[in-house]
């Protein structure tokens, strides 16, 4: 599979503005939004690579269908798993290092078997292609928040 995760490049462009905060939009800084996306990307992609191919039936709930149909996640509804919670003091250089790790994990995931899978805590099991699409939907959600933080400053 050819990997195309344009949101990683967009996140990279915002790293120099990582310390910007606007509490009216989010409690997190731009850097925390970026770190959350990169931790999520790396975690999802690493889980895909480590999984054993599974051809079992995948249950798709209503909310999951809506998110994949619209390509958007409603704001303020979800809770981040502990593994994807950002650190308030993350530096630009740490974000660049994490971006490199997330990009490498994503490339390895794209090269994995199409029946590899990852389990979302709320949306259930997703095979490789759907999980990588979820990464993009999730990262676009946070890119919109970043844009709002920056436009309201």
The strand order across the widest sheet is 1-2
Shape: globular
Overall pLDDT: 92
- Indicate the radius of gyration in whole angstroms: 15 Å
- Work out the helicity level: 40-55%
Beta fraction:
5-15%
Number of domains: 1
Q: Supply the CATH architecture.
A: Up-down Bundle
The ordered string of helix (H) and strand (E) elements is HHHHEEH
CATH topology: Four Helix Bundle (Hemerythrin (Met), subunit A)
Uncertain segments: none
Q: Helical stretch count?
A: 5
Note the main sheet: 2 strands, antiparallel
Question: What's the quick description here?
Answer:
The chain is mainly alpha-helical and 153 residues long.
Account of the protein in words:
This protein is mainly α and 153 residues long. It has a single domain, classed as Four Helix Bundle (Hemerythrin (Met), subunit A). Helices cover 54% and strands 5% of the residues. It contains five helices and two strands, in the order ααααββα. The chain has a two-stranded antiparallel ribbon. β1 and β2 (124-127) form a beta hairpin. α1 (6-14) packs parallel to α5 (128-151) and α2 packs parallel to α4 (92-110). It is globular and about 45 Å long. The relative contact order is 0.27. The model has no long low-confidence stretch (mean pLDDT 92).
Topology:
Blueprint (H helix, E strand, L loop, with lengths): L5 H9 L15 H21 L11 H9 L21 H19 L6 E4 L3 E4 H24 L2
Antiparallel strand pairs: 1-2
């Amino acid at each position: 599979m050819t990997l195309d995760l344009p949101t990683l490049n967009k996140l990279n462009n915002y790293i120099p503005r990582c310390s910007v905060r606007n509490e009216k939009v989010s409690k997190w800084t731009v850097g925390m939004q970026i770190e959350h996306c990169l931790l999520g990307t790396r975690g999802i992609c690493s889980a895909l690579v480590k999984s054993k191919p599974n051809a079992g039936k995948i249950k798709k709930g209503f909310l999951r269908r809506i998110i994949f149909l619209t390509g958007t996640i409603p704001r303020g509804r979800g809770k981040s798993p502990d593994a994807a919670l950002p650190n308030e003091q993350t530096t630009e250089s740490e974000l660049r290092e994490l971006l490199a790790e997330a990009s490498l994990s994503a490339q390895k995931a794209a090269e994995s078997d199409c029946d590899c899978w990852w389990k979302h805590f709320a949306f259930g099991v997703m095979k490789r292609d759907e999980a990588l699409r979820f990464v993009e939907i999730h990262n676009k959600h946070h890119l919109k928040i970043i844009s709002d933080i920056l436009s309201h400053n």
